[in-house]
Amino acid sequence: CDVQSLVGKPKLFFIEACRGKEQNQGAALMTKSLSPPPQASGVTLPNKQDVFVGFATVPGYVSLTSSGGSPYLQALAGELSQHGKSRDLSEIHLLVKRKLAGMKLG
Question: Three-state DSSP class for 73?
Fold first, then answer.
């Protein structure tokens, strides 16, 4: 980090923007039972691990919105509110993606 006052502090970026022009129509998916979340291993992480970037969509695709606003940001706010103290950010973001996958958008 180039700003010393930010060293060791989390830097979170949530990007609600199109990353292309394709529409993501999705596909049917069969799932297995959920596995338990991974446990902490005590491994030291590189110093850039204090940055998290969450995108509303994958590269090449549009980001959808509705009359009620951004489904991504609404789902993110809901999951952070519900799980912010009990799960790590990567798990929460996965829950957001799963919630969006189950929505009828567009």
Answer: helix
